[in-house]
Design a protein that fits this description.
The protein is an alpha+beta fold and 752 residues long. Helices cover 49% and strands 22% of the residues. The strands form five sheets. The chain has an eight-stranded mixed β-barrel with strand order 18-19-21-22-23-24-25-26, surrounded by four helices. Helix 24 links the parallel strand 25 and strand 26. Helix 11 runs antiparallel to helix 12, helix 12 crosses helix 13 and helix 15 packs across helix 16. It is elongated. The termini are far apart.
């Protein structure tokens, strides 16, 4: 019975103890969860248990993630962990609480400042672990550091400022900087002590008493001048300003800034006195010097006008008033520097007037100058105010366009073309003048105005080669072509004397009889170093350099001489066709030259056919008509070469009375399959027939092309279908063995 009772009582005590233990555990967990600091139980250098705040400090989502991690990883380094152990071991073993501030490491690896408080659970049994309380003080440390730096900067400014600074609180100064004390002849402490000693006990008057009176009436906001007294007795004039330290809390006092302006005011007084004396002296001498001053003024004005005139003449074109090459160089230097500094675009346009020389030659330089003046005005009206239009000389102009890229330059070039379409009225002359333009861009086409202008000039040259009245952008290939053109021009100067030129001839077949009616003389150049050079390449160079006149005369003489040889060899009805460049055609002495060569060779004029391009009469139809009439009077036949690719009009064809139209090979090439080309060729033949002209088709290569031309009534044809251009001996052999060309239709007729 007694044993049973003891067991019951023991069981009751165990249940009560268990309930107390669970309550203590709940209280402990509640304490851990609600604590505003991190709490962790560390055992064997591993986190055995922690609260949520501890996990959050180190970057874990919840406390379970932190359990089991090594406490070493929570420190900045292993060395820091060991240093903490060495510092804490004595206190912890003695059963004391250890406190310190250390840099710890978050889960992300970032370091932060924390306050650490550690205690062993059982100092007699350290193996049972320890409890650590951690508080994140990283932001607090940063603020302390920032506050310390700010205070240090403020103190440094206070001590080193070159102006006087004094803090005023409750009617007395609390402290001042060394500069103010030095300005008044005191040490800073001495000046503050003197100001704070009652007046009855002072051995001297405080220089800050004046400041005290002003501060009492200014209410913390003063700007003006005050006078202080130096320790030695002299007066110090000061500019003074005061402001509340905290406008919302006047008990914090005010700060005064004082600048010593004694020397400045002294100098101002001297200057004022000196100015008054000078004004008095000037007033006394005014009447005496009035005449002299007026004379000098007039001389200055005259000299200024002369200098302005000299400057204008040095920087501007006297005819058009546009900037000249010198002013262009100055402006371009500044524009290029700006473009380099701002990485902004810049463009240069080189503009040359097409065939302007014809105006001077035909109407005189007075009309040409008047035309240039109007062109200059029109150019200036097209561009912006910041752009520069300069005249280099003759009919060459350069446009400097700051800020313009390729699109902007093209837009300006288009406007210039549009402006040129309106004719110019010079007296009773109505003149049209189109420009050829080249465009260069900075920096890819040149680093200075000379290289940019040169590049634009090269591009302009290509614009002229490609038909004039257009614009082209500079490319490196153009530079190569320019170098090549210069090379050809230099080589061409001795080509005639070195006998490098030869003539090849291509037969022209009559489509009605199949006979060789005539041959076209074609110039060939075999240069010693450069080899064979295409006429398409060297003829434009010859025209541009003016050498085409000598070369053209050589072609004319040699072609007629060869024709004479063929006539004497038994081919008296053969004719020769010679191409004339526009430059040759516009030479006034051309008819006399042709007549003299025919007379010397004893060849009838009707055996010579001169082939002209459509563009020879575009700009001066009247002069062209006179030259054609003079040639026809001598009996020479005239044909229009490459018809359909130029600027011909029906009125010109009627006026010029051309004998033959040569249909360009670009229309003949696709006759087999291009209905448009077939329609164009058919229309040309019909028009020529209506005007009483013959037609010759160039570039005939297939029987189908030949058949179509015959069906349409074309008179002649030439091309690879019949013969390539051949040297004179091979043409002689061809003429000797030639059988009249038999067309398919002719063959059918003979068969019947």
């Amino acid at each position: 019975m007694s044993l049973t009772l003891d067991a019951v009582q023991q069981s009751s005590r165990l249940a009560t103890a268990h309930a107390d233990l669970e309550r203590l555990l709940r209280e402990q967990q509640t304490l851990l969860d609600s604590a505003g600091v991190g709490i962790a139980f560390i055992k064997h250098r591993v986190v055995a248990r922690c609260n949520h705040h501890f996990a959050k400090i180190f970057g874990f989502a919840h406390s379970q993630q932190a359990i089991g991690i090594s406490s070493t990883t929570l420190h900045a380094s292993r060395e820091d962990f060991k240093a903490l152990g060495r510092a804490a071991v004595d206190s912890l073993i003695d059963g004391k609480t250890f406190k310190t501030e250390r840099r710890l490491r978050r889960r992300s690896g970032h370091l932060f400042w924390a306050s650490l408080t550690g205690h062993l659970i059982n100092p007699t049994a350290p193996q049972e672990g320890s409890i650590w309380i951690i508080d994140d003080i990283d932001e607090e440390c940063r603020r302390k550091a920032l506050l310390t730096a700010t205070l240090r900067e403020k103190q440094l400014l206070f001590e080193t400022a070159a102006v006087g600074i004094v803090y005023w609180r409750r009617g007395t100064p609390s402290r001042c900087n060394p500069h103010l004390a030095s300005m008044l002849g005191y040490e800073a402490e001495e000046l503050i002590q003197l100001a704070n000693v009652p007046a009855t006990l002072r051995h001297a008057t405080s220089p800050l008493e004046v400041l005290s009176e002003v501060a009492a009436s200014s209410h913390g906001n003063f700007e003006g001048e005050i006078t202080l007294r130096h320790k030695q007795g002299q007066l110090i004039e000061c500019e003074a300003r005061s402001r509340w330290v905290d406008p919302l809390d006047h008990s914090q006092g005010e700060v005064w800034i004082l600048v010593d302006i004694t020397e400045r005011k002294h100098i101002q007084a001297i200057l004022t006195q000196t100015q008054a004396e000078l004004e008095s002296l000037v007033h006394e001498r005014t009447n005496e010097l009035s005449v002299t001053i007026q004379t000098l003024h007039q001389e200055v004005e005259d000299r200024k006008r002369v200098q302005e005139r000299i400057h204008w003449m040095a920087h501007y074109d006297p005819l058009t008033g546009l900037p000249n090459r010198a002013l262009l160089a100055e402006r371009s230097k500044a524009a290029i520097a700006t473009a380099q500094a701002n990485s902004s675009p810049l463009a240069v346009i080189f503009l040359d007037l097409d065939r302007f020389k014809h105006v001077n030659d035909s109407l005189g330089h007075k009309v040409g100058d008047a035309l240039l003046e109007q062109i200059a005005k029109r150019l200036r009206a097209v561009v912006r105010e910041k752009d520069t239009v300069a005249r280099l000389g003759g009919d060459e102009f350069v446009l400097l366009l700051p800020g313009a890229n390729a699109q902007g330059a093209a837009r300006v070039a288009g406007k210039l073309q549009e402006a040129s379409r309106q004719p110019y009225q010079i007296g009773h002359h109505e003149l049209s003048m189109a420009p050829s333009m080249g465009i260069a861009l900075f920096p890819q086409d040149g680093q200075d105005i000379d290289s940019l202008t040169q590049s634009a000039d090269v591009a302009m040259y290509h614009a002229k080669l490609e038909g004039r009245n257009t614009y082209r952008f500079f490319t490196p290939q153009m530079h190569a072509k320019s170098v090549r053109a210069l090379q050809l021009e230099n080589a061409m100067r001795r080509a005639l004397e070195r006998n490098e030129f030869t003539l090849h001839y291509q037969p022209q077949i009559c489509l009605h009889t199949g006979e060789i009616r005539s041959v076209e003389a074609l110039l060939r150049w075999q240069q010693a170093e450069l080899g064979a050079i295409s006429p398409a390449e060297f003829i434009p160079v010859a025209e541009d350099s003016g050498q085409i006149l000598q070369i053209g005369e050589w072609v004319l003489k040699n072609a007629i001489a060869q024709l004479q040889a063929w006539h004497q060899a038994g081919f008296p009805h053969l004719k020769v066709a010679v191409n004339l460049s526009a430059i040759q055609f516009h030479q006034p002495q051309l008819p006399e030259l042709v007549g003299r060569i025919l007379q010397e060779s004893d060849i009838p004029a009707t055996a010579l056919e001169l082939e002209l391009t459509e563009g020879v009469a575009v700009h001066d139809p009247q002069a062209a008509t006179q030259t054609m009439d003079a040639l026809r009077e001598r009996g020479v036949w005239l044909s229009m070469d490459d018809f359909g690719t130029g600027y011909s009009s029906l009125s010109q064809l009627k006026r010029f009375q051309i004998y033959k139209l040569k249909i360009d090979q670009s229309f003949v090439h696709d006759l087999d399959h291009d209905s448009n080309d077939r329609a164009i060729v058919s229309a040309i033949i019909r028009m020529a027939q209506a005007l009483g002209m013959q037609t010759t088709a160039e570039g005939v290569e297939t029987a189908a092309q030949l058949e179509f031309l015959r069906e349409q009534g074309c008179d002649e044809a030439q091309g690879y279908l019949f013969s390539r251009p051949l040297p004179a001996p091979q043409i002689h052999a061809l003429l000797s063995s030639y059988q009249p060309w038999i067309t398919p239709q002719a063959s059918n007729t003979q068969a019947r």
